[in-house]
Structure formats: C-alpha cells, structure tokens
UniProtKB/TrEMBL annotation:
Pfam families: Methyltransf_11
Organism name: Pyrodictium delaneyi
Transmembrane segments: none
Protein name according to UniProt: Methyltransferase type 11 domain-containing protein
SUPFAM superfamilies attached to this UniProt entry: S-adenosyl-L-methionine-dependent methyltransferases
Molecular function terms from GO: S-adenosylmethionine-dependent methyltransferase activity
Superkingdom field: Archaea
Domain annotation Methyltransferase type: ranges: 104-170
InterPro entries associated with the record: Methyltransf_11, SAM-dependent_MTases_sf
Amino acid sequence: MNSVAPYPMNILVFLVDAGQLERRMRGASTMSREKHGSIDERELGKTVQLLYEAFQSIEAVGGSLSPYVPTQDYIVEPILQLLDAMAHGRRSARGEGQQPVYYEPGCGAGRVAERAAKRGFYTLCLELDEYLAKAAAEKLANSPNVDVVIGDLSVFRPRRVDAVYAYLLPRAVQRVLDVLAGQGAPLLSLDYPAEDDSGVLAAARLEIEARSIYAYKL
C-alpha cells in the first residue's frame, strides 16, 4: 500500500461510505435473487465502480494512492517470465553483463519480490507502510541482493532499473511512470493502465488468465 496521509492501513477502508456500499450490495443481491437467482452483473459492476470511485475520492483528499492488495499467486510467474525476458534482452542488446535490477513500488509484504530475487534479479522493494515493509524485510532476509526501502513511490527514483512491476491504481501507476521517465526499462502494470495512457507500447495490452497486463517503456 502506498499512502500520502498518516492514516493507519487498517482504517483506510473505513473512509469509504460503508452504509451506501452496503445498501447497494443488498439491493443488487435482492434484485438478482428475484429476477435471476444469481448476482446481476450490471449491479455488481455498479458496486465495483462505487468502490473504485470511493478510493479515487480518498486520493483526492490525500488518502491512499493505492490500497495494498497482494498479487494472486497464479499470475506471478507469467509476469516475472515476461519481465525476465524483457530485462535480459534489453541488457544483452546494450552489451551489459550486470545483474538486472527488479523494482517493485508498493511491494507490500514482498511476495512477488521474493520470487523475483529467486530468478536472479537484484531486487528493490519499495513500501511506504512500515508494517508491510517490516514483513517484506523478514520474508526477504535470506534472499541475496535484496533491499527493502521505506519510501514514497511519488518521489523515490532508483539510480537504475531494468524491470518494474506494479499492481497499483491508475494514478499511482502514472506517478511511477513520471518519476522513472527516461530509464528506458519496461514496466508491467497488472489490471490497471496509467491515468495518461499515451506512453503505452504498441500491442502492449496482454491477456493472461483473464487478467490484463499493460506494458510501458520508461
């Protein structure tokens, strides 16, 4: 999770209008049972949109840039395979033999970063929440060539990156792109494109296991 306000992680979710959300969900459930016997997709979509808009409102008043949600295990390996190939191809083309650098802003408890390190990346795990950063440091304690940094993705710029992974909301993805502009490395964003999608690579929206992955060149 990345935050720009000093709220504890466990109360951020309560900034959403819980009563409104509950009423919408109850209404969707009742309608679907009466008409179809299952959840009405349109009402479910409205509920998801309500959640998204609520988090966007939190951002606007200085709340969470992107609430922490761990990447599901089944999609981690395909993402890392793509980043591995892109990073090594990029460095080989430039005649560079150094260990490739994997950077994950908003890395949470370090689940994806741990597997990136096992693939041979020098791994940089950035997390603003101190509790999550501590959990990541403990998880990655026995992994070689790993650094966990407590910092804000809006301002933190590594000296060099070769592969970047983000599971963040659009505004946070955009800020990462802005901060890392000029690095020349690939960034893969799961589920969400950046707010300003003009930098997306041609044919870069991939579908893997019914999930969208957006590829950007920094």
